[in-house]
Specification:
membrane, single chain, mainly alpha, 132 residues, transmembrane, 5 helices, Integral membrane protein, transmembrane helix
Length: 132
């Protein structure tokens, strides 16, 4: 579960970052911020995906990613709700959606890390185990 959560975070972050840099949808955010955040997401996505390919991802790095995702998600919600930027309606929807998604990644990663630490997360269960 942990590797899946990291891969999902990496792929989605990379794709969102690429979309933001290449297409730059009008969301009401200053172009410099938008490009900077997009480039960060591209690099972050590659890094998180690379971490997910390790036999055993480093727990300290995973914890850092989880904390970062929670901070990013809360910051996104505050950005949309407190009007830190003159976001368009589409911009508010996009910022809120990605903020909630990032919090979801953190939750999945937390569950996966807990299972990996307890020895529960051993990959796909065998057919006889899946009925239990």
């Amino acid at each position: 579960m942990l590797k899946f959560a990291l891969k999902l975070d990496g792929v989605v972050s990379f794709a969102l970052g690429l979309l933001t840099v290449l297409i730059r949808p009008e969301v009401g955010m200053p172009a410099g911020w938008q490009i900077g955040l997009g480039l960060f997401c591209v690099v972050y996505g590659v890094g998180v995906f690379a971490l997910s390919t390790r036999a055993t991802p480093d727990r300290r790095i995973v914890l850092l990613i989880i904390i970062g995702n929670l901070v990013w998600g809360l910051d996104s919600i505050l950005t949309a709700e407190l009007n830190w930027f003159p976001l368009t309606d589409a911009g508010v929807a996009m910022v809120l959606a990605q903020g909630l998604a990032v919090i979801g990644f953190a939750v999945l990663q937390s569950i996966g890390l807990k299972r990996a630490g307890s020895g529960i997360d051993r990959g796909t269960p065998r057919r006889s185990q899946s009925l239990a």
